[in-house]
Design brief:
binds zinc ion; disordered C terminus; mainly alpha; about 290 residues; two-stranded antiparallel ribbon; 6 strands; 7 helices; single chain
Amino acid sequence: MCILTDLCHHYANLYPKKFVDIAHPLSVLTVLVGTAFFFKLQMFVITPFVFNDLLCKVLWIVGAFIVYNILGNQLACYCLDTSVDSLPQDRRTPSAEEEHLWHYCEICQRLMPPRSWHCNLCKCCILKRDHHCVFTATCIGHNNHRYFFWFTFYLTLGTGLSILTTIIYIVKKGYLFDPFPLYRIIFNVEHSKTSDGYSFCEYLIFLLNICACVLPAIMLAFQKRIVYFNTTYYKMCTRTYDLGFTKNCKFIMGERGLWTFISPTLKSPLPHDGTHWETNSSPPSVPVNVK
Ligand SMILES: [Zn+2]
Ligand SMILES: [Zn+2]
C-alpha cells in the first residue's frame, strides 16, 4: 500500500496534469459506481432475504441516509473552494501584526497565511492544507475538511454494514463453509452449478467489498486523530495547534461540531477564515470572522 501511494505521489509530481486527468475521473467514478453497486446489492438481494419487512424498510431509510451523506459530502468537498484565493481580497495580504507569521510561496510568489501550503495538482496554495484527495477531485483544507471527515465516516459505515449483513446472509443460506457464496448471492446460481470457473468474479467482489471498507477506515482513523489534535495529514505529529478537543473539533466541524454528521447541508460556520491560527503557546487573541 505504501509503495502504491509513493508511486502515485512520484507520478503526480512528475506529470501533475496527466495525473489529475486520469486519477480524478477514475476515482470519483469508483466511489459513485461502488456506492450504487453495494446499495443495490444490499437493498434488493441481501436485506430482503435476511430481515423481515419492517426491518427492511428501516434499512432502506438507513441505506438512503448513508448514500446521501457519502455523495453529499463528496460533492461539498469538490464544490467548496479552500484555496487562499477564496479569501476576500483584503484578507489575502497580512496585516502588519500578522506579517511575521505568514510565509512566502516561491510558486505563487506572495505571502501565504500560516498552515497553508502549495498543491502542485491544484496549482495554488490551500488554506490549512490537509492533503489532495483524488476521490473528491480536490484538495482538503480549511473550508472543506468537515465534509471530507464525514465522507470517509459514511463510506466506512456503509461498507462496514454491508459486510455485516452479507455475513448474516451467508450464515442463513448455509454458505458459511462454502468457498463461493458471494457469486451465488449476486448471480443467484445454485450450489450444484458452481465450479472453479466462477472463483475469479467471486473473489474480486469479496476483495472490492473489503477494500471499499478498509481504505476509508484507514483514512478515517487518520482523520479522527487529525480532528482530535487539530493537526493535518502530513504533519500528524505536530501538536502546535492543539487547543483541546472541543476547540479543535470546532476548527474543523464549525460551530455545530459533531452534529454536522446529520447532513452536509447543515450550516456550521467555522470560527475563522483560515488565516489566523492560535498556537498552544501563544496568548489567546480575537479571531477574524468568516464573511
Ligand atoms: Zn503557492
Ligand atoms: Zn490539491
